[in-house]
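USER:
Working in pairs, take the chain set out below, taking as long as you need, and write a paragraph about the fold.
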Amino acid sequence: MGMEGDRNVMWDFLRPGRMASVDSGSPYKVTLTKRTPLISLTEQGAATGNLRVNLAWSMRAADFTPGRSAGSLLRNPLSVLKPQVVQAQGPAMVNVDLDLACMYELADGTKGVVQPLGNFFGDLHKPPYVETSGDDRFGSPSGETIYVNLDKKDEIKRLLIFVYIYDGTPAFDRTHAVVTLFPNTGPRIEIELDERAPQARSCAVLLIENRKGNLMVRREVKYVYGFQAELDRLYGWGLQWARGYKSKT
């Protein structure tokens, strides 16, 4: 699936950042940020077994109930004492369909994508050693999940985990999405898609790279206006893309 157009990209140039460490206040979670975008699964002793990558999202609370702006409170300070009227969720609600996907490049040069669209579900036990659980169109708490067989890490060169909005209005600014990595051992690793990018349809979330046996995870969070083809150009994957569609269910 791809979309040609202006190569107008919203993203931050990632300067060399510090390595993330286990948060002393939350010993079972590491959050990758702009300041600490890197973590080594190898140094954490977590580069074996199956790595679970999960996407979960919800609509931002402000989009469900009308809020009171600071200006309206100044004009009518007594309005704070009145209960708010909760309007029914009608056509104004955005139907968000976030998909979790992965571009892969293996050590032998093989490249491809694992994603629900087109039924490219992958395989955990043979190349590409990446497999998706399928497509969750409703943003349920379990979300969508991709599995990576890290016992085959020597055959993996790099993996780009990304999220795209298949259909409907671009709504990254109206959703709260989190991608979480659950290694076989050690703390989980979280990356929040917390930057507002109202017109973006895709986001490169993280890059997993095998650097001479050291398996590194790097936060990306780069938003683009297009789809997989535009992410491909950003990271130089060199795949051929065509527009794809989901069956209506």
Summary: Residues 139 and 221 are 19 Å apart (CA to CA). Residues 19-61+95-235 form a domain with the Lipoxygenase-1 fold (CATH 2.60.60.30). Residues 228-235 form the longest helix (8 residues).
